[in-house]
Specification:
Layout (H helix, E strand, L loop, with lengths): L3 E5 L12 E5 L4 H6 L10 H8 L8 H10 L2 E5 L1 E7 L7 E5 L2 H5 L6 E5 L1 H10 L1 H4 L3 E4 L11 H7 L1 H8 L6
Parallel strand pairs: 2-3, 2-6, 6-7
Antiparallel strand pairs: 1-4, 4-5
EC number: 3.2.2.15
Keywords: Glycosidase, Hydrolase
Pfam family, one: UDG
């Protein structure tokens, strides 16, 4: 069992001036904190999903992944700025201090928020949705712990993110 400890969010958000959609996770995993890029665990399917949505290959490295998101108008950050957590277990999160998402999106072209996983969605609705004031939607977790969703199913579930990022009305 991993030790429960206070963790501060130290992974820089991925952002570009023309971002149209903000994808929010809960809190970076230990692998993401070490790599300095969101969803860095080798079995997390976020980057393969994002790459598939835009007809690209997963670049597999931090700079390439940042460029992929930026090229397609996708910003990434996390709901939680600090918390007490065991390893990477969202279920163990306590003592949440949220990131200032409202300030992050202010004055940007971001028009939609996508939440990866049920904990991110729950915490966003509890702490941030009203202040941020943008349309939002929850999506299945891309974590390897969510094994019942296969990659093709995740790609289809995340299709609205691509629609929002490209300005298509299909993502409503």
């Amino acid at each position: 069992m991993a030790e429960r400890r206070e963790v501060l969010h130290r992974v820089e958000p991925i952002w570009a001036p023309d971002a149209r959609v903000l994808v929010l996770g809960t809190m970076p995993s230990p692998a993401s904190r070490e790599a300095g890029v969101p969803y860095a665990h080798p079995h997390n399917r976020f980057w393969p999903v994002l790459a598939a949505l835009f007809g690209e290959k997963d670049p597999k490295d931090g700079p390439g992944r940042r460029a992929l998101a930026q090229r397609h108008h996708v910003a990434l950050w996390d709901v939680v700025g600090s918390c007490t957590i065991e390893g990477a277990s969202d279920a163990s999160i306590r003592d949440v201090v949220p990131n200032d998402i409202a300030a992050f999106v202010e004055g940007t072209d971001i028009a939609h928020v996508a939440l990866t996983g049920s904990t991110a969605l729950r915490l966003y609705e509890r702490d941030l949705a009203e202040r941020v004031g943008l349309p939002y939607r929850g999506f299945p977790s891309t974590s390897p712990a969510n094994a019942r969703w296969r990659l093709p199913e995740l790609v289809e579930a995340y299709r609205p993110v691509a629609d929002w990022a490209t300005g298509s009305s299909n993502g409503q």
